[in-house]
Automatic annotation (TrEMBL), chain A:
Residues 263-292 are annotated as: Disordered. It comes from the Bacteria. The keyword Transmembrane applies. The chain crosses the membrane at residues 242-262. Keywords: Membrane, Signal, Transmembrane, Transmembrane helix. It comes from Planotetraspora mira. The keyword Signal applies. Residues 1-29 form the signal peptide. The lineage of its organism: Bacteria, Bacillati, Actinomycetota, Actinomycetes, Streptosporangiales. This is Peptidase.
Length: 292, 401
């Protein structure tokens, strides 16, 4: 609880500090990025890939509408940034009931750029469509994308994400029947990027072009002489901590002066701070301040 | 940074613009066997639905598409199986298509003979030739192969294993169980799709969709590589996409050089191209040269699926010497029959990436560091000055009074 409220304050402060101190800085660049604004401009996507390599790229809020056959494996990909939480909603209009022979199980699987399975925190990821159902709805809300994670963890990181829609179980006779698929990805951005200061040097996006088998390890390039000139790398990045620290410093100054005045003699304490000689009244001495 | 990310993040479908590309190649294989006379698609005969649908498909073809047409069972009306099962011809050669000519050629076809699907697939693969890009066969048939052997499914698997990047999409013009089983088998063996055609519109749309897919995705083909059974002699891979075959319970080793300050990223997908027992899994491990496991990625499942994939990241600790990391792909698939377990192995796709490593972010800067001290001192000074000025201002006001 405490950390959350502190973080919220920090967020507010950082926004204020960024606005006040630096109108154009890295923080401003991060928050002011207009995600290609809602919908109308985005043309609907009417295709889907059939494998990871051929996945059709879609953008958040871009409608996807296509006809397929039950049994198809449909792949799409999208890009997520740190702090983003993505939600995938899919509606499959099933083939006519007359041509179906029973219930079917559907699944939407989400993989990160390394094709590692990603967990859904909410949504009907693997629903079952009853034999008489006209359509089935699938959903998956992903975890918030982190800015950095240890290589050994499976945490969601910035980069490509793959969505695969498939029927995972159905009567064999129902394969290949016509179906309609509608999908939409919604992205919710947040400034609260975790871990603070973390950065993934390259987004999780694997190459799609053919590789080449090497005959020997490539020679190590000679290390370039490091630029010994002056730079600002030692300064911490612009963040809420600067505001906290600066305000902390100001408070420290105030409390310092307060503390200093407390240490002065009670009789002279109420006199003018610059030592201007003013006769002190007796009434003031009736309220001595405790000095311990 | 955002712009850079969105540029990099979307799978670079056009990443290799520099490499000279050949045009997309598609061959449509049409079954013109005797059974195509049956009138069971919306009251029309199968052949007439096919012909009408083809008119629309040919009209919608993109000009740069190289499409060929091959027919099977179109010429021999007799009863001799030996002759009828060799009945397949290329009606329109692969290349920029003359739409009018192609329409006429298709319109004059009459349902005639046998259904040598396996043979037609082999011939179609020959027509498409070999190359760096994906080739697609769209097989449209209404009957099971009456000429096996060769079994069309075996043929499909064999063609897929030749490394010519061949995908067979199948369309069944009947809801017959045997046909469906055969066509789904062919489709899954090559990573293609199966569609049961129930109307003319559906047929037209589907063929258009498949030709479009061929045109937009045909360049994404991985390089062929042969993994070995131990690390020492394993192929040394540079970043990129690779394909290989792995048999059931086989281990395949590869090596990747990783320098100081670099991070290794690897993903693997194993396609389930045949009937397998219910539970299965795939394991990708990164192992150091002296046999120490560095990191692993794993995935398992038990439902119907097309591929099983996993990935891993690994980077050495700071200032470690350059090293070569071994990658080993293993699986826990099992087959219900001995025949399906045999060669060729299952298609394996390995993606290797080597990027700058991302060191752990520093802890919070508060409470430590020279920058913090300087800032605090400055803030204190400013505060003190303000306080002092305020006091002097008050004094001057008081004096004035």
């Amino acid at each position: 609880m405490r950390t959350t409220s502190v973080r919220r304050c920090a967020g507010a402060l950082s926004a204020a500090a960024a606005a006040l101190l630096l109108s154009a800085g890295p923080a401003a660049a991060d928050t002011a990025s207009p995600s290609p604004s809602p919908s109308e401009s985005l043309a609907p996507v009417t295709t889907a890939g059939s494998s990871f390599l051929t996945a059709t790229a879609v953008q958040p809020e871009q409608p996807v509408q296509l006809a397929g056959s039950t049994g198809d494996y449909l792949y799409w990909s999208f890009t997520a940034e740190a702090g983003q939480t993505d939600k995938i909603a899919i509606t499959v209009t099933l083939p006519p009931t007359a041509s179906r022979h029973g219930a079917s199980n559907w699944a939407v699987d989400v993989f990160d750029g390394l094709r590692r399975r990603q967990a859904c925190t909410a949504g009907a990821q693997t629903p079952t469509a009853a034999a008489g159902a006209a359509s089935v709805t699938l959903g998956c809300t992903l975890r918030q994308v982190r800015a950095w994670a240890e290589p050994w963890s499976g945490d969601p990181l910035p980069g490509t994400y793959y969505v695969r829609l498939a029927v995972t179980g159905l009567p064999e006779q129902d394969l290949g029947l016509p179906m309609q698929v509608a999908m939409r990805i919604t992205a919710h951005d947040s400034d609260d990027i975790q871990p603070e200061g973390g950065e993934l040097k390259a987004p999780l996006t694997q190459p799609v072009s053919a590789g080449a088998v090497l005959t020997s390890a490539p020679p190590v390039a000679v290390e370039e002489e490091k630029d010994s000139g002056w730079n600002w790398d030692w300064l911490p990045d612009l963040s809420a901590r600067w505001a906290w620290t600066a305000i902390g410093g100001a408070i420290a100054a105030v409390t310092g002066v307060g503390g200093y005045s407390l240490t002065r003699h009670p009789r002279r304490r109420m006199s003018n701070p610059d030592g201007f000689n003013r006769p002190s009244s007796t009434t003031r001495q009736e309220h001595p301040v405790n000095i311990t | 940074m955002l712009a850079a990310l969105s540029l990099l993040g979307v799978p670079p479908a056009h990443a290799d613009e520099t490499t000279p590309k050949e045009p997309p190649k598609v061959e449509l294989v049409l079954d013109i066997s005797g059974s195509m006379r049956a009138r069971d698609i919306e009251g029309h005969s199968r052949i007439s639905v096919l012909q009408q649908s083809f008119n629309d498909v040919l009209d919608a073809l993109p000009s740069e598409a190289q499409v060929g047409i091959r027919v099977l069972g179109a010429t021999y009306p007799g009863n001799s199986k030996a002759v009828g099962c060799k009945d397949t011809q290329q009606l329109v050669p692969i290349g920029p298509i003359d739409k009018l000519e192609a329409k006429t050629a298709v319109a004059t076809l009459r349902p005639t003979g046998f259904t040598p699907v396996g043979l037609a697939l082999r011939a179609a693969a020959r027509d498409l030739g070999t190359g760096e890009t994906t080739r697609r066969i769209v097989l449209i048939t209404d009957g099971e192969d009456t000429c096996a052997p060769p079994d069309p499914c075996e043929v499909a698997r064999e063609l897929a294993a030749q490394g010519t990047h061949l995908v067979v999409d199948t369309l069944g013009l009947t809801l017959n169980d045997k046909v469906r089983r055969q066509l789904t088998c062919i489709a899954s063996a090559t990573g293609g799709t199966y569609t049961a055609v129930t109307s003319k519109t559906q047929l037209t749309n589907r063929i258009n969709q498949l030709v479009d897919r061929a045109a937009t995705t045909y360049t994404q083909t991985p390089a062929q590589v042969d993994g070995t059974d131990n690390c020492t002699g394993a192929p040394l891979l540079s970043p990129g996409a690779y394909t290989d075959r792995e048999q059931l319970q086989e281990h395949r080793w590869y090596r990747v050089p990783v320098r100081d300050g670099q991070e290794l990223r690897a993903s693997v997908s194993v396609s389930l191209d045949r009937a397998l027992n219910r539970d299965y899994g795939v394991l990708l491990r990164a192992v150091s040269q002296d046999g120490r496991e560095l990191v692993r990625g794993t995935d398992a499942g038990s439902d119907r699926t097309d591929v099983l994939s996993t990935g891993l990241r690994w980077s050495a600790e700071q200032d470690a010497p350059d090293q070569t990391v071994c990658l080993v792909v293993s699986n826990s698939f099992s087959s219900p029959t001995a025949t399906t377990a045999a060669t060729p192995g299952m298609p394996l796709e390995l993606i290797v990436g080597v990027v700058d490593s991302s060191p752990a972010p520093n802890g919070p800067d508060l409470g430590r560091g020279w920058g913090l001290l300087g800032l605090l001192a400055l803030a204190g000074l400013v505060g003190g000055l303000l306080f002092g000025w305020l006091a002097r201002w008050r004094v001057s006001i008081w004096r004035a009074n």
